[in-house]
Amino acid sequence: MVGKGAKGMLNGAVPSEATKRDQNLKRGNWGNQIEFVLTSVGYAVGLGNVWRFPYLCYRNGGGAFMFPYFIMLIFCGIPLFFMELSFGQFASQGCLGVWRISPMFKGVGYGMMVVSTYIGIYYNVVICIAFYYFFSSMTHVLPWAYCNNPWNTHDCAGVLDASNLTNGSRPAALPSNLSHLLNHSLQRTSPSEEYWRLYVLKLSDDIGNFGEVRLPLLGCLGVSWLVVFLCLIRGVKSSGKVVYFTATFPYVVLTILFVRGVTLEGAFDGIMYYLTPQWDKILEAKVWGDAASQIFYSLGCAWGGLITMASYNKFHNNCYRDSVIISITNCATSVYAGFVIFSILGFMANHLGVDVSRVADHGPGLAFVAYPEALTLLPISPLWSLLFFFMLILLGLGTQFCLLETLVTAIVDEVGNEWILQKKTYVTLAVAVAGFLLGIPLTSQAGIYWLLLMDNYAASFSLVVISCIMCVAIMYIYGEHSSLRPPATRPLARPLCPAGLLTPHLSRAPELLPGHPDDAGIPTAPLLSDLLALRLSRHHLPPGSGPPPPPPESSSLRVAPGAERAPPPAPTARGSAGA
Question: So where does Na(+) 2 get bound (predicted)?
């Protein structure tokens, strides 16, 4: 009995425990590991997978773009994804709290918050527009199918209107004179484009002319923020249950649309246009830049969300496995969505008798103009429209959950007292209300200009800068080996770069990182230094090396009750000789 108790204390647990506690009772954890994986998949798989990747692929060489894309995934995406997951899981802190390892670089955490704030504001506006189109699809005839609406102009030329001119039938291809008119007339606008510009947005003529706030969009914006708040009302405990639906059902809708799309005439032409490689494009630097930016944007690296979601993991979770699974799932979804999009666009191009490039678009132009117009050509078009926009809503909500939770967790962890932990729901409500108020200008007549401006610049090159600074801070200032050891047994970090020589106080930065509560052992989940330095086997200190552990009251790492009473093991003759 005595031997058993001593063994328990040596393992960092009280004698009554069989194993070390692996949970954070103060902040809480995911209900199970599936919730974390589904939440991370929902966070990474967003609107960009549907409206951004297919366009980048066909614009940058089709199938040839897959080569730089997967190169960036292997050498940039997965390592950075793994680094952020392990960083957040080890510290059990949000994107601000983790920078106790080096307070000088806390600005990186604030940068992540700024990026998440920008994206969270305009992302929910896109979701609200998808809500608006979803409600508008609840009709027998889609309102953007014909040109006989009050908002249509004389330049409107719809596909179905043209079909009605030819004996009321829907031919496989339009007559040559009408096809020529649709191809080359600079005045031709589709009914879906006029519905988007003249009815939904009532678009102004300048970015500075805000005009009036579109009340239907404002109402949908309120609905979208209300849904996000209700799903996060109990933090990860409630959002972890919601993602069982929001992260999986989009794949059901994608599969339904894919099966329907590939059975249409002309779908093969669209898919070939999407995949046909143009190998000369690989030599262009812009193609590699687009591949890198898409990896950063799609995986959500440097947004702060990955650190936040991983901070609710159990300490000994295998985050390396999770990072590989989530990254590959995200990129496979992007490729799969390309088949769904271009099969429908190929059918539309075949129907119009034009090249696929004439109907292909990206961003809001694809989601709210080109694809809705293609859906009008399908039988029971309101059903397909409902499915498509419901999928967009779920894809957007999955990302928006994590963006809001990132901001809330950063605020709560930064304050860190018991009162704010108990009032976390009110913090979530306050952040949601602030996001709603900041999103109101984007529902004005000039709102789409500002939305596109934020989309192009909020999360582009800034993500690369944040990621590079984060890598330098963790690898060369925090120390190559320090990230593998708890502070109680960690030696001073060596000055591995000029910053370490100029700022000697940074050598004590590892002592500032709070370890996982109720855990005094060596972490089993490795950090980025494993992958970059190829030191996967060095997870423990050699016997007798390093300074003696400080007293429990001076250590920043909280140990399990009884662990501080365990005497250190006596060094063996072999260990002393090795030292």
Answer: 44, 49
Tokens representing residue 416 in the block: 């860190």
The pLDDT confidence band at residue 348, using thresholds 50, 70 and 90, is confident
* Residue list, annotated binding site: 42, 44-45, 49, 298, 330, 395
Within 10 angstroms of residue 577's Cβ, the number of other Cβ atoms is 9
Q: In CATH, which of 1.10.4160, 3.40.50, 3.30.70, 2.60.98 is domain 33-162+189-483?
A: 1.10.4160
| Domain regions of the chain by residue span | 33-162+189-483
Binding site for Na(+): what residues are annotated?
42, 44-45, 49, 298, 330, 395
How large a percentage of the chain has pLDDT more than 90?
Answer: 38
Q: What is the pLDDT of residues 455-472, one digit of tens each?
A: 888 777 788 889 999 998
Q: How far apart are CA 356 and CA 34, in angstroms?
A: 40
Report percent pLDDT > 70 for the chain.
73
In contact, 224 and 127? CB cutoff 8 Å: yes
Query: In which band, very low, low, confident or very high, does the pLDDT at 37 lie, cut at 50, 70 and 90?
Result: very high
Say which residues have a Cβ less than 8 Å from residue 61's Cβ, sequence separation at least 6.
277, 278, 279, 280, 281, 282, 287
